[in-house]
């Protein structure tokens, strides 16, 4: 369920603070050298090929929600190390390291905010924090958010960026978060709630196989990697080359699993418009 | 029943078993031979107790994958009075890795779903070694709806290394169907019992894993990722699978401690593969008892309790609660 073998995420542009002016970036989409500042001004989208670079959770909040409307919820929840898990490094230490490196407390930020003056419940996962994987804290924050949205009859938007799926360092507890969040979404659905799931690069494994796939509407950013099993696992299992556009947003659209591919520039407008059709 | 060739840690057991078998084959049995057989049997039981009383995580994985371990179809034959197989997902195909059908168990009429691994090579290939495609989960959902409509309790046998990783599986929405199947199960208005009978391999297992009761056979495992997969990612080599197995804490006693599993069904001495009949009979009595219990509850209460059961799972620190607690005053 952990699809951590998905394509590595280019993290260089996440460290934009402190980088000298005038730095050029190599775009993974078109291999062109692009001016970093220009990319940043275009919501981290390549000016040459429209490749959508990584966006941090906090930048995403700024892009999608009305200025100053975001109110975080359940920030106080912290991952512990219930299995006392250690691979080549202790999970407890890894957590502290990730918190320092990303400035996040865990891989998801949840809360409420406004999208063009429409109040919503909102969550975004950040692929920089242990691959955006879901452990107990991610599962609990999402579940509390879905329950809050159910109780307050709010539209729900979750933007996913998770190459890691369920977080293996928390073992079965991580797997069970898929069930927990899904069950909360089923109750939300029963109450008539409107859920838009936005899939971004990458959305894999246990995240794809739970809440991310359960939107009343499923949007995806262009050319995102989205799927259940990691491409390397599939290649190792079947031993043949994978199709060119395999597990991309476009591939999923073609196979009928996505409602719309939405560029980052249009995401806020598209979310607001969808709420006008389906929100309460 | 001999377990046949197989597990390395069973070498001593296998030697005793073959010694006993060869003595018993002798036509001119003397009192001395009889005595030797009795002694060897006692020694065998002691050894089985010792070895199976302290299986480590990696040994548990090997037992759960033993080629003679009973599969879903074996339990359908041995524990149920009737099985009427139902095929197809009414959409794309019939996945042999997911069995479904009506079944009778004591006085209960039920719907059974279960992963099937296949015993012969041909069967195994047809079942993709127990790895279901999206068709399998769609098939499961179609039968779940049927069970709900006619108030048949649902019994799910989990035994899969994981959902199938392949091109067709991705094209037909593997992630989507697992999510949808959990979504449906979480609200299903009929009693649901899930039993991990062998391998509980991540999302492919959980796809039929949301029950009012979740049980495991003693030597099965249930994990977020296979030990080999975990070792490959975190240790950069599959050779560390036994280390990963220990780190993941996925045995039946671990899962009981973590509050994920409600009941553990004890296996016959030396594992389910040594005595299919005894295992089936224990499983049957567990199911019968649990069905009677669940059947006596109002369905709304059952569905609410199912929600709460999964709602509680997770371990984290909630500082707000700690600050608010009286001990902090
Ligand atoms: Zn580009």
TrEMBL record, chain A:
Gene Ontology CC: acetyl-CoA carboxylase complex
Cofactor: Zn(2+)
Source organism superkingdom: Bacteria
Entry EC no(s): 2.1.3.15
Keywords recorded for this protein, A-Z: ATP-binding, Cytoplasm, Fatty acid biosynthesis, Fatty acid metabolism, Ligase, Lipid biosynthesis, Lipid metabolism, Metal-binding, Nucleotide-binding, Transferase, Zinc, Zinc-finger
ZnF locations on chain (C4-type): 27-49
UniProt keyword annotation of Isomerase present: no
GO BP, one annotated term: malonyl-CoA biosynthetic process
Amino acids binding Zn(2+): 27, 30, 46, 49
Pathway recorded for this protein: Lipid metabolism; malonyl-CoA biosynthesis; malonyl-CoA from acetyl-CoA: step 1/1
Residue ranges of every copy of the CoA carboxyltransferase N-terminal domain listed in the record: 23-280
Pfam family, one: Zn_ribbon_ACC
Annotated InterPro entries: AcCoA_carboxyl_beta, Acetyl_CoA_COase_Trfase_b_su, ClpP/crotonase-like_dom_sf, COA_CT_N, Znf-ACC
Main localisation: cytoplasm
Alphabetized GO MF terms: acetyl-CoA carboxylase activity; ATP binding; carboxyl- or carbamoyltransferase activity; zinc ion binding
Reactions the enzyme catalyzes: N(6)-carboxybiotinyl-L-lysyl-[protein] + acetyl-CoA = N(6)-biotinyl-L-lysyl-[protein] + malonyl-CoA
Cofactor note: Binds 1 zinc ion per subunit.
Places the protein is found: Cytoplasm
Family membership noted in the UniProt record: Belongs to the AccD/PCCB family.
Entry-linked HAMAP family: AcetylCoA_CT_beta
Complex formation: Acetyl-CoA carboxylase is a heterohexamer composed of biotin carboxyl carrier protein (AccB), biotin carboxylase (AccC) and two subunits each of ACCase subunit alpha (AccA) and ACCase subunit beta (AccD).
Function according to Swiss-Prot or TrEMBL: Component of the acetyl coenzyme A carboxylase (ACC) complex. Biotin carboxylase (BC) catalyzes the carboxylation of biotin on its carrier protein (BCCP) and then the CO(2) group is transferred by the transcarboxylase to acetyl-CoA to form malonyl-CoA.
Name of the protein: Acetyl-coenzyme A carboxylase carboxyl transferase subunit beta
Species: Novipirellula herctigrandis
UniProtKB/TrEMBL annotation, chain B:
Coiled-coil segments on the chain, per record: 6-43
Primary site of residence: cytoplasm
EC number of the protein: 2.1.3.15
Keywords, alphabetical: ATP-binding, Coiled coil, Cytoplasm, Fatty acid biosynthesis, Fatty acid metabolism, Ligase, Lipid biosynthesis, Lipid metabolism, Nucleotide-binding, Transferase
Domain of life, per lineage: Bacteria
Pathway participation: Lipid metabolism; malonyl-CoA biosynthesis; malonyl-CoA from acetyl-CoA: step 1/1
Keyword check for Repeat: no
Single GO MF descriptor: carboxyl- or carbamoyltransferase activity
Subunit-level organization: Acetyl-CoA carboxylase is a heterohexamer composed of biotin carboxyl carrier protein (AccB), biotin carboxylase (AccC) and two subunits each of ACCase subunit alpha (AccA) and ACCase subunit beta (AccD).
Main function: Component of the acetyl coenzyme A carboxylase (ACC) complex. First, biotin carboxylase catalyzes the carboxylation of biotin on its carrier protein (BCCP) and then the CO(2) group is transferred by the carboxyltransferase to acetyl-CoA to form malonyl-CoA.
Family classification: Belongs to the AccA family.
Protein name as it appears in the record: Acetyl-coenzyme A carboxylase carboxyl transferase subunit alpha
Organism in which the protein naturally occurs: Novipirellula herctigrandis
Lineage: Bacteria, Pseudomonadati, Planctomycetota, Planctomycetia, Pirellulales
